[in-house]
Design a protein that fits this description.
The structure is a single chain. By secondary structure, this protein is α+β, with helices and mostly antiparallel strands. It has helices at about 20-25, 40-45, 80-85, 155-160, 165-170, 220-230, and strands at about 1-5, 10-15, 15-20, 55, 60-65, 70-75, 95-100, 105, 110, 120, 120-130, 145-150, 155, 175-185, 195-200, 205-210, 235-240, 260-265, 270-275. The strands form three sheets. Strands 1, 2, 3, 4, 5, 6, 7, 8, 11, 12, 14 and 17 form a twelve-stranded mixed sheet that branches. Strands 9-19-18-15-16 form a five-stranded mixed sheet, with no helix packed on it. Strands 10-13 form a two-stranded antiparallel sheet. The model has no long low-confidence stretch (mean pLDDT about 95). Keywords: Metal-binding.
């Protein structure tokens, strides 16, 4: 199943077409994509009966599939090659911070660049399907509603200006959390723990890896986060980025208004972001 946010309404995506959830269900489920997570099991059971059809999908009208999560978790230094380029020691717990929900935007959004040095970080983003606390690793995937492509855009000057990194604020400017293009349920993948992940800036490949290279996989992250926090239906987790970020390059490379940023994950799709000031 592919669930999208089309002009603020929940739709099921079948190829290039979309079926409006509220209309197709005769009101059994509403139009708000975020509200579906409160009844996720029932919604998925109903969605399996929908056979397709609908109206053409206009990508310019797609918003974030999970538009208003109560909690946004983000993980740093979660790919071994990125750990090496960033100079972090091995064996520590997942580096965890937040991106504030107001930064979330759609897959093809035009993002305003603040003053400073804006960097890219393509990431697999997962959405939580039901309340999770003290979840065992073997049961972690049972708490996953679906997967999205995400970009953890980061303003590096704010992030590194003080004596301690300022992760959350520097990564939460408006538009700094493109997600989408839709939410894909785990059953759509042969192996949801091993997906190709890539990012190109104006046609030049910057990041190219597989999610199997994560230090902490999806089950590990749900286990570790739920050991401390209560994860809620519709929460999302940015799971970390591979090597190839602009701040680690020589010379450093950052996003400009002339750039386009394409971020993709196997079996899900891609984001295509452009920039303004």
């Amino acid at each position: 199943m592919r669930l999208a946010n089309l002009s603020g309404r929940a739709v099921l995506v079948f190829g290039d077409s979309a079926v409006d959830v509220e209309r197709a269900s005769s009101g059994a489920f509403g139009s708000d994509p975020q509200a579906l997570f409160e009844h996720w099991a029932a919604f998925v059971a109903w969605a399996e009966s929908v056979e397709g059809g609908g109206e053409p999908v206009d990508r310019s009208l797609l918003g974030p599939p999970v538009p208003r999560p109560q909690q946004v978790f983000a993980i740093g230094i979660n790919y071994r090659e990125h750990q090496a380029e960033a100079g972090y020691p091995e064996g520590s717990l997942p580096v965890t911070f937040t991106k504030f929900p107001t930064c979330l935007t759609g897959p093809d959004a035009v993002v305003e660049l603040p003053p400073g040095s804006v960097d890219w970080e393509v990431e697999l983003v997962i959405a939580i399907s039901r309340r999770a606390h003290h979840v065992r690793k073997e049961e972690a995937w049972d708490h996953v509603a679906g997967l999205m492509v995400g970009q953890d855009l980061s303003e590096r000057e704010d992030q590194l200006a003080g004596q301690r990194p300022q992760f959350s604020l520097a990564k939460s400017y408006p538009g700094f959390g493109p997600t989408g293009p839709w939410l894909v349920t785990p059953d759509e993948f042969e192996d949801p723990d091993d997906l190709a992940i890539t990012c190109s800036l104006s046609g030049e490949v910057m990041q190219d890896s597989r999610t199997s290279a994560m230090i902490y996989g999806v089950a590990d992250l749900i286990y570790e986060l739920s050991r401390v926090c209560v994860l809620l239906p519709g929460d999302i987790i940015f799971t970390g980025t591979p090597s190839g970020i602009g701040n680690a390059r020589t010379p450093k490379r950052f996003i400009t208004v002339d750039d386009s940023l394409r971020s993709g994950i196997e079996g899900i799709g891609w984001l295509e972001n452009t920039f303004t000031v």
